[in-house]
């Protein structure tokens, strides 16, 4: 079994690496095609040099020079007329233009026309002897200031040290607790309870599976967790079919099979509910709690009051909008506009939170249209306004960054049905947002501003403040536990710092891989603390921070506007999603070297992604 998981994990890594290489090659081909287009006019510039020899065709012009010799014939009028004669002789002036005389002199100089033959094309031949870079290393072309790079390196190193220290401390604490625990022979024995009936276990599996799907777990992790719960309660041979919108569970019941089907994914859980669900699942897999009690706890967490009220959540959306605008390089004007629009969008989401599918589609398009119209109108009046930070920041929670990344991870693990469904749903969400933006642009018009251009950052510390605001605002708006805010900000800071370093070393696409790779072990280590959030709570804001959704929004919008560059941006978005998935996979594999044990299946990522990490208890 362990060898099979190792083979599956290696196969997943190979597939992701090949997919990332193919997408990177596609991006390079598109950029190379764009680069060769401006080179074509350069060859045409040599043609005017060939036309220069046409100047000797004017050599017959010297023939008027003898006609000027009769002009001196009025020589008898010597002294009075030499200067006045310039007035009576306007007619010879056209016949003896001074221009023909300069023409012979340049005609002699074009003769060294071999100079055009020494044009730059021989440099291509010379390049064969002295090899030059077609694409220079990313580190030589990066525009990131050294101060920001050093700050990012310090944050990543501090995060790595913290991960090792946390893991070591927790493992020592666990060892000391185990040593101080009484022997099993001396421990009091609890009365044996009757095994749960298959019907009770089936109801528990349905409730737990539906809650996990609503929390955003991958379908593989849901299936693994349900199988472990059934085994803990004495049922083997359980079969599950998990989809993003449905759940089917079958358990053996005597000589037959009991089956239950339920729809799922329609009541998304808030972050505090995701945290509570992690604790409930841990107790469910222990097998020491009756199924009815576990189901009651799941129902209780669904009905629990959020830790933040409506006004606090509205302030949280304001914070995350301002933070993301700062991350995108916005000016003070951009931060003000993003904050004001964030308040409006947050209020709309709170008022129209429980919506049906049709109304949610209308809400998405209408919100994108209204925000785009306001930003484009302000762009006419305020020339300092940056369109991208002011436009993307208020719409950030509409962007399907987590949905797209989870879909790519599921595709990599062989869950083609659910993975393709999530990717298609995320793409449709981007199309709806882009449709609203394009509609507003058609109605209002687009000012003379580059949509992809970023404004000058307010300073080297501004992006880090933006990370803190974004993390805190996301936790508040999505109703996470207040004690988890600091941990989430730590995970996001490590992800952003690693992304900055990755951008300087490998370029934009692979920077997401480096960010996800550094973020995953930190999220797993943070989850070991009693006050730490579950890894899934840290993953979701990090997926938004790595911004595959924002890239896709820019690409779809450009494509709908007829810009061919939008296709290149969409390919870059796909490569970024694959890079994030590969980073999470490698990060989970790196967690093997950490001392102690980490919850794996309850991270929301399938156990197959980390070969040899899982033992019988679902821990690593």
UniProtKB/TrEMBL annotation:
Pro residues bias (residue ranges): 59-115
Q: Which residues cross the membrane?
A: 146-167, 335-352, 359-379, 391-409, 430-449, 461-477, 484-502, 508-527, 539-560, 566-591
This chain belongs to which protein, by name? Answer: Threonine/serine exporter family protein
Q: Where is the signal peptide?
A: 1-34
Q: Where is the composition biased (Low complexity)?
A: 129-144
* Disordered: region residues: 53-144
Pfam families in the cross-refs? ThrE
Report domain Threonine/serine exporter-like N-terminal positions: 204-443
For this UniProt record, the keywords arranged alphabetically read as follows: Membrane, Signal, Transmembrane, Transmembrane helix
Question: Which lineage do the record's taxonomy fields give for this organism?
Answer: Bacteria, Bacillati, Actinomycetota, Actinomycetes, Micrococcales
Going by the entry's taxonomy, the superkingdom of the source organism is recorded as Bacteria
Q: Which GO terms describe its molecular function?
A: transmembrane transporter activity
Read off the InterPro entries from this record. ThrE-like_N (IPR010619), ThrE/Ser_Exporter (IPR051361)
Task: Give the family per the record.
Answer: Belongs to the ThrE exporter (TC 2.A.79) family.
